[in-house]
Amino acid sequence: MVSKEGTYIVNPDEEAIMKKKISEDSDPEIKALGEKMLSGDAGVYKFTNKEGDDMIAFYNPIKATGWGMATVAYQDELFAPVSNVLKIMVGISLLLTILISLGVLVTVNKAMAPLAVMMDEMHLLAAGDFRNRPSRITSNNELGALAAAVREMRQGVSNVMKQVSGSSESLAAAAEELNATTEQSAQASNQVANSIVNVAQGTNEQLEAVSSTGTAIEELNDTIQTVAGEADAAAAHGREAAEVARDGGKTLEQAIGQIKRIEQSTNESTEVVTALGERSAEIGQIVDTISNISAQTNLLALNAAIEAARAGEHGRGFAVVADEVRKLAESSQEAANQIADLIQQTRKDTDNAVAGMQAGSEEVRVGTQNIISMGESFRKIIEIVETVSGQVQHISSAISGMAANGEEVMGHIRIIGDASRKAAEEAETVSAATEEQSASVMEISNASDSLSKMAMELQNEISKFKL
Question: PANTHER family attached here (predicted)?
């Protein structure tokens, strides 16, 4: 006999009663018999058991309880030709049927109370009512134990649901904290990622700047080398210029001496010409005296001619002499006039010469002063050139040192470039790792959101139960 769920109620194996279902039997033919018993129909089922024996089963439903009952016998025994055996078997079957029916009625009457309690517990369990209620189980048989087990199961489920409720509240709070923490971590990771990206970009820009600086330093170093060569050449030219300036100073000093001698000669010539002018003036005075004498002689000759004419024949010879004297006086007068003209022209020329000599003397004096000033300037130029030459030497030395420093700076820049390149690579690696971490944090954040939603849904579901 089995219940409507297929659980054995009556079975030759006492260990299977109320503990095992017919659908769980290891013999497939018994499972098939159980399906026919629970189908609600009556009939006969023939089969071969797992030992190889031919069996026959008569099954009938119990309408009141929904249970199924079957009587199983060996076909050889059931269909023996001996009628007595058949009668005995029929009688036994009938007796068994009666006894079983009576046992069923008794069992049903005893079992109904635990079953009712068990049904109530099941209904409460299905309704989600896990509140504690007083026990109404009075039977100590298997059904009573089953009802008590169902009640204990409901109480156990109640305790579990309470724990789950508390845990869900803690889980929801933890999920919210985790969500907030992951959001903060995500923001921090994003900020770190952005900072790393900025660092990578800054490092790349620094690397480019270092490369540009290195190129500029190399160009500057080349320029310094060129300037150093030009400074050396300038120093050499400065030394040559100083030497030329010193030679020019010496030549200028010689020129100053010659100019001074020219000035002295010019002054002496001016004095001579001035004296010549004075002598010409004296000669002019003498010529004027000669001209006066000639005029008087001419006048005396004229008077003598007049007196000779008065004397007649006696005065003819005297007239000739007077005429010759007149002619000589006129010639003297003409010569005196010519001499006067010459003296006048000579005086003019002498005056011009004196003026020219004086002007030349002034120009020579001014030129002398200029040359003397030029000499001072040359000395200053020599000093400046020598100073500049020394400074150019210092500049050349400084530029040479600068070139050496430039080489050293280039070495440091190369080191900085290598370090910046490595830093850029490390920054890119850290940036990639930070991006992966940000992605992981976002996944954790999404998971925490889902967990928080699941916790809220779990709380909503648990709130439907009565604890």
Answer: LYSOZYME-LIKE PROTEIN-RELATED (PTHR32089:SF112), METHYL-ACCEPTING CHEMOTAXIS PROTEIN MCPB (PTHR32089)
Provide the domain limits for residue 217.
201-456
Q: Identity (one letter) of the amino acid at 401?
A: G
Write phi, then psi, for 36 (nearest 5 degrees).
-70, -35
Is 196 inside a domain boundary?
A: no
Q: pLDDT per residue over 85-134, tens digit each?
A: 556 665 676 677 777 767 666 665 655 666 666 666 666 666 666 566 66
**What is the C-alpha R_g of the chain?**
79
- Residue 11's nearest CA partner among 74, 103, 78 is 103
Tell me what pLDDT residue 285 has.
76
pLDDT of amino acid 118:
60
- Examine the fold and report which residue of 111, 127, 143 is the final residue of a domain before the chain moves on: 127
Closest CA to 108 of 66, 150, 70, 147: 66
User: Measured between alpha carbons, how far is 197 from 417 in angstroms, rounded to an integer?
Assistant: 19
Position 155 in a domain: no
Residues 106, 243 share a domain: no
Last residue of a domain, one of 108, 127, 146: 127
Please give the model's pTM, rounded to 2 decimal places: 0.32
Q: Are residues 321 and 442 in the same domain?
A: yes
Instruction: Note whether residue 156 is domain-resident.
Output: no
Q: Which residues of the chain have pLDDT under 50?
A: 82-83
Ramachandran assignment for 122, one of left (phi > 0), alpha (psi -120 to 50 degrees), beta (any other)? alpha
What is the 8-class DSSP label of residue 49?
-
According to DSSP, residue 7 is labeled: B
Q: What does the chain come to in residues?
A: 467
Tell me what pLDDT residue 81 has: 56
Structural domains counted in the chain: 2
Which helix (H) or strand (E) element contains residue 73?
strand 67-74
Selection from 3, 12, 14 nearest residue 37 by Cα: 3
- Which single residue is written with the structure tokens 């508390």? 166
Question: Which residue in 161, 166, 185, 193 sits closest to 448, CA to CA?
Answer: 185
pLDDT attached to residue 18: 86
- The span from the CA of 19 to the CA of 33, in Å, is 18
Could you tell me which residues come within 8 angstroms of residue 54 by beta carbon, excluding any fewer than 6 positions away?
46, 47, 48, 74, 75, 76
CATH of the domain at 22: 3.30.450
Four-residue CA torsion sign, 389, 391, 395, 398:
positive
- For 406, residues 6+ apart whose C-beta sits below 8 A from its C-beta are 217, 220, 221, 224
- Would residue 22 count as lying in a domain? yes
